Amino acid sequence: MIFKAFVELFPSEVFSLRRITPAKDTPIADKTYFVFEFYPAQTGPGGGDMRRVLLALYSDDLTNDWTFFHLSLDPGRPDFGPCLHPDFVNGANSMILLKALLDEFNADPHFYAGLQERFGLFRRELTGKKYRGKPFGSFSGVMKEGNPLRVPPVDTFGPEHPAWWLQSLEGKVAALHEMMEQGEDASFPGAGEPVDHETRLKELSVLMEPLLPEIQTRRPPRISQVLERFIDMHHDAALLFLELLQMHYPHKEEEPGPEYQLSYYLFCEALHKLKYGLERNWRWAAPMWEQVQETIADKILVPHMGQFVQQDVMEALRESGMEPDFVLIEAAQELAEYYNRFSGRDSIEEMEAILEDMERQGFDDPFVLVELFLPQLRLIPPEGQLQILSFLAGYRNPVIREIVGLMCLHHDSEVRVLVPDILTQAAHDGMVSPVTFRRLITMRNWLPEEQRSPLDATIKSLRRGGLSPEPSEKGQLVSVYASLIDGSGSQGLWLVIQQKDQVMLANLLLKQGLGVQDVWCSYFDSQADLKQELDMVKNQIIYYKVDPGYLDLVLQAHIAEGFEHDAVPPTGLMLVAETLGHTDWGAQVQEAGELIEMFHEHMPKTYRNPKRWPTLANQNREWLMRSGLHETWFDDDEAVENVLFAKIGEPQTWLQDLDVTAEVLIQHIFEPRRRQWMNRFLWTGIWLYHVRPKPRAPWHLFLIHAALIRGGFPLSDLGAVGTVLIQTMYSAYYRALNENASPAVHTFDSIPAAVDPAPLIEEPKEEEEPPPSNLIPFTRVRNK
Questions:
Q1: SS3 of 688, please?
Q2: What's the sign of the alpha-carbon dihedral 94, 100, 105, 111?
Q3: What gap in Å lies between CA 503 and CA 522, rounded to an integer?
């Protein structure tokens, strides 16, 4: 059987290898051994998973003093327990190391559980598919030496041999750890001289080379662990990919080559990382975003640069969802003036020429046209945008006129509240269609209460003018899939909708507290093509089939949450709504107490008594870790580091007394964000309740935790919060090491104040005024 090293598939894990030091009374007490894990790279003779691990204790001192141990990952097996592997010539100190390994397992119960989890990660990375074997059993008690008689043989020929692989390291592990430890002294100096710009570009090109064949296929490339770590470690990765875009962009009429396509794909990835940093308030993110915009303004949005790369860069910015600053808007306007577009004496003629070009290309979908127009509109001041929309409202092509109605969902409220006036004027000239009328009625419920009056007036005016909304052709909702809710509160929904001759796959991105973030739709001619797309998504994201009732509940709640930030759903949601015939979606504020009460009666009987909830919540303090839904649940913003530097000290002290560090984070980070974590547990429980078939994860425990958090139960007394807390501590610790952080770069005057446990008070819900009756679609019946 062939075994492969875990760090071969996950190179960055070399920085977190477990280290074991033998007992002081042994002859090797002064040596440190790294624990390397090797997992089966193939299935057993009968197709079984071979759920076992080969552990190598490696000294890294070039003496070849290493020992191999076999361990089953199923604790119920009769041969359970580590034992010396008979296929290897183990060192003279093998029995000492066996005792040291057993002591490590018995001192840290998470060691064995971590091996089980990493087996699944290894299988997923090896096969490209999520590991779906039976759940691993848990182990408690004292681990003892296993039986070597039933150990399967290891392939000991060729370079796959684990001993050969270890020999090839040649002391590199210690060198890497020395680099990491250089960043752990009091002043956190760099681990070496900064790498020059040209060297980093060459290194990046080498890392990208294996992905070039993949980018030419339909599937997006699978970014390697090394390349992903490069992007994480280099905050200016977006600038590097931007430079590669300039180097590889197609000239004249040439088609973009694979180097350009891959650079663009990775530029988009780097922008999403940058946006994540902005959302987490990391200290480097805002200055880097300014630098990216200045670079685009100075080197991309200039006349001598090809329009191909200019359009791609602006599209990448639009896809990232980051709002451009003045420097970018000004550069775009100057470039537009250079091209005499939307400005100057001939602006109307220029615009007509662009619209005519679109007509010649056969664009007949207003939603596609909106996607094309929005990036350019966002770079124009509101007054200019309204002038353009006024021109479009009277344009001869009815498809292009539909754009104006969809702009009632413009991201800028300064624009969208004035669009109804443009439509009212266009209606006098007979330029508003029944389709636009239908959409306006639906959109009305997607706007904040204070912004509905102008649209209400337009709808009344259209009704008085004798216009009736055109009914939509309703498609069939076949299935709904929903991803888990990650640590940032984001969740993806996938709707499979059967239309007459094709299938629509609608993808919705929701984010707690911010609303409906994005919607995009794809079309497929066959079920086979659809399945291929869903399989590709499943390889990247964990999602489950859910009851359609979850769609209505979570979507309407997120529409309402967006109003708190003056945000409305994107226009893509209108396409989904009218495809399904859903004119009744609206904003629906969902109070936590009401939701808990709604699902309380569906809990298993033994969990329905609220008085028992504190006990039931902690019956198994590791239940969240066992659920597998916790991996992205941690607080990872700049405030965490600020608090730890101010209250604990240098990063090397953060993990010395976990109880003290935990108490500091509870008081300054988790308690101030109690409502955020209540919502995370609450909506995860509701999501799991709607999953079909029922998952193994206990949905009711998530709901119980939400209720306890809402009621003021101390967060420090909840084992599940402890799991999130540990991940938060380690995330902050390793980021501080990677970034060579020091107190000098932190501002301690903005540290969140300590907060004591207290119930969450929900504001009384205001009764929402129903829409006027004459806004609802109806069929007029003449009196006889």
A1: helix
A2: negative
A3: 8
Neighbours of 761 (CB within 10 A): 9
The mean pLDDT value for 231-240 works out to 86
How many whole angstroms separate alpha carbon 404 and alpha carbon 478?
Answer: 31
Across-strand partners of 496?
Answer: 479, 505
CB contact set of 39 (below 8 Å; sequence gap of 6+): 3, 4, 6, 53, 54, 118, 119, 122, 123
Contact 704, 711 (CB under 8 A): no
Segments making up each domain of the chain, as ranges = 3-180, 197-338, 347-464, 476-580, 593-750
Bridge partner residues of 492 (DSSP): 509
Q: Is the model's pLDDT at 471 over the cut of 60?
A: yes
**Which stretches of 348-489 are assigned E, i.e. beta strand?**
476-483
> Taking a C-beta distance cutoff of 8 angstroms, is the pair 719, 618 a contact?
yes
**Residue 202 to residue 712: CA distance in whole angstroms:** 54
Nearest alpha carbon to residue 645 among 740, 748, 725, 754? 748
What's the burial of 30, exposed, middle or buried (CB within 10 Å: 0-12/13-18/19+)?
Answer: exposed
- The sign one gets for the Cα dihedral 733, 736, 740, 745 is negative
Tokens 């990677």, located at residue: 738
Tell the burial category of 635 from Cβ atoms under 10 Å away from its Cβ (0-12, 13-18, 19+). Answer: buried
Amino acid at 378: R
Average pLDDT of the chain, as a whole number: 82
pLDDT for 231 equals 83
Residues in the chain: 784
H or E element, residue 19: strand 19-20
| Phi then psi dihedrals of residue 130, to 5 deg | -65, 140
Cα(341)–Cα(333) distance, rounded to whole angstroms?
9
Give 48-75 pLDDT, tens digit per residue.
668 899 999 988 665 667 789 999 998 8
- Which tokens go with 743? 């107190």
Q: Are 221 and 265 in contact (CB under 8 A)?
A: yes
Give the three-class secondary structure for 91.
Answer: coil
Say how far apart CA 234 and CA 518 lie, in whole Å: 27
Rounded CA-CA distance 625/627 in Å is 5
Separation CA 240–CA 274 (nearest Å): 13
Give, as one character, the DSSP assignment of residue 170: T
**C-alpha distance from residue 71 to each of 40, 83, 148, 188 (Å):** 12, 7, 10, 39
Angle at 452 between CA 449 and CA 455, to 5 degrees: 170
* The pLDDT value given to residue 750: 64
3-state secondary structure of 490: strand
Comparing 39-48, 323-332, 362-371, 661-670, the range with the smallest average pLDDT is: 39-48
Give 634-648 pLDDT, tens digit per residue: 887 788 888 998 899
Q: Work out the pLDDT band at 394, boundaries 50, 70, 90.
A: very high
- Alpha helical stretches, state H, 280-341: 285-295, 307-320, 326-338
Indicate the residue type of 647: K
Does pLDDT of 173 surpass 70?
A: no
CA 749 to chain centre: 31
Assessment of whether the complete model's pTM goes beyond 0.85: no
Give the model confidence (pLDDT) of 606-634 as tens digits.
999 999 999 999 888 788 877 777 778 88
CA distance 470 to 548: 26
Q: Give the DSSP H or E segment for 125.
A: helix 109-127
Distance separating alpha carbons of residues 184 and 708, to the nearest angstrom:
39
Sign of the alpha-carbon torsion through 560, 317, 231, 520: positive
Give the number of other CB atoms < 10 A from CB of residue 58. Answer: 22
Q: Looking at residues 519-539, what average pLDDT do you find?
A: 87
